[in-house]
Amino acid sequence: MLQDYEIKRTETNTRKIMIVLEFALILIIMQSILTLFAGASAEEAVQFRLLAHSNAATDQLTKEEIRREIAPLIDNVVTTSTSKEEIGERLASLEPTLLKIASTIAKGQSIQLERKNALIPPKRSGFSIQPQATYDTYVLTIGSGRGDNWWCSLFPNVCFQGQEEKSEEKVTFFIWEWIKGLFS
Prior knowledge:
This protein has 184 residues and is an alpha+beta fold. It has helices at residues 13-36, 57-80, 84-106, 150-154, 156-159, 174-183; strands at 47-51, 111-120, 123-125, 128-130, 133-142. The strands form two sheets. The protein has a three-stranded mixed β-sheet with strand order 1-5-2. Strands 3-4 form a two-stranded antiparallel sheet. Helix 2 runs antiparallel to helix 3. The radius of gyration is 27 Å and the shape is flat. The chain starts with 12 loop residues before the first helix and ends with a helix. 9% of the residues are buried.
């Protein structure tokens, strides 16, 4: 008589693949649900954009200091208003205060604040992603407004549409240069 023995089954690769696919599907469904139940859409909100004079550290610090000073005022208007029209009216009345604060911090640089339709690059806010589009925007420009924002390095065509790249850098490979150095 043959003795009974335990049959050992090994987990197949298809089972592992199915687990990964199920996990990805669950993540996609959760993201869809979060997108559906997200708060007010960005199209309804008034956007704000600060442009520094240049990329110099002092100009970027000036921009950041202005942002820190005016952010509480803007947040207060947005949180206490009940409609988009009320937000627009209260922000219009806040414009002189914003200009005064920015002028004080900028120390002699020209300051411009204008409300216009401006192209805003995509950005993530919590679980939602604001798509790139033209939004109703307050643009506060310090000096010439040539300083890069974080998206200008990622999407240069968005910030400087009329400018073309001046010259392309020559691509080199470290290993190839090292091998050439051995024989020269």
